[in-house]
């Protein structure tokens, strides 16, 4: 943890950021970390509803509803959690088709007409839309909620003297392999729309995504493949001029042996069996089978710890702030999620 913080900094590392994009290799914990980060960002307010964070998902998988044990989310902002100090986490499952209808409604007052068009199959949305347009609709809706001002009268922001509807927006984003293309809507729509509303929308989106308001965080495990994807992902993102955020190592396992023992245990001969036996004798466990089994376990643990250390070192090449979240033995329920959120705050991520 480069930015780590046993002594918590006065300001979190990303205090200027209002859009946190959470990516990472598939299955590394993007959805979990996005949820924990939203809780972490929502905490720390002084009065009920003081801080409000919106979590958005863009892949139609209802991962956020599952994470917060809520009913499937409609295309509508719903409150999914409240922090002990009254911060609120809201969630929205952004659907490209719904976003298009909303967009047509907003800009052309075509709402009902668009719905009729759809009913008659004139817009066979899923099959005919260009992927670039789909992405710009998803990122466009995200940027709309990032920029939405409280006095617009939409969403949950009534009755508060806040500037924006949401203090922060956290996106449970597509995986590392697709993230730069997904966010780089400019180049994606350049061949499709040179002028007109889609072009304007893409430009507005890029203004938010390339600004200091945005940070793209990478979730990884301390394993070779996700670490390599993280390194490649950072490089791609930076080459595209998009703002790289932090590295969040997820599912880190505790180290149970002191350093000198770890080195010894990882060597071919392993830990000194006589010494192990002597240590186990007082508790009546000096059985040769137990000793052998424990020595093997220690060797496995030590080798894994050393491999993980190599991966941690490789990640340092990103020169990004690093955070580390523990592997939760009991899986990720709300208690576990709160624990991860506290850990992110303690380390200065939020
Ligand atoms: N710190 C953790 N401790 C224990 N289990 C975890 C932790 N983080 C994530 N998990 C579990 O790992 C699995 C994958 O997590 P998650 O769904 O968040 O990953 P993802 O990157 O969003 O996956 P996908 O690519 O499928 O969207 C889930 O079962 C989740 O509960
Ligand atoms: Mg997910």
Overview of the structural elements:
The protein is α/β, with parallel strands linked by helices. Helix content is 46%, strand content 14%. The chain has an 8-stranded mixed sheet, with helices on both faces. The longest helix is centred in the C-terminal third of the chain and has 28 residues, at 288-315. Mean pLDDT is 88; it is low at 1-8. The site of adenosine-5'-triphosphate has 17 residues, from helix 1 and strand 7.
Biggest sheet: strands side by side, in what order?
Answer: 3-4-2-5-1-6-7-8
| Main sheet record | 8 strands, mixed
Output the number of helix runs.
Answer: 14
Give the overall shape, derived from the CA principal axes: elongated
CATH architecture: 3-Layer(aba) Sandwich
How many domain regions? Answer: 1
Instruction: Quote the average pLDDT.
Output: 88
Bound small molecules, by name, code or SMILES, are: adenosine-5'-triphosphate, magnesium ion
State the CATH class. Answer: Alpha Beta
What portion of residues is helical? 40-55%
- Could you spell the SSE succession in H and E letters? EHEHEEHHHHEHHHEHEHHHEH
Seen as an oligomer or otherwise, the chain set is single chain
Structural class: alpha/beta
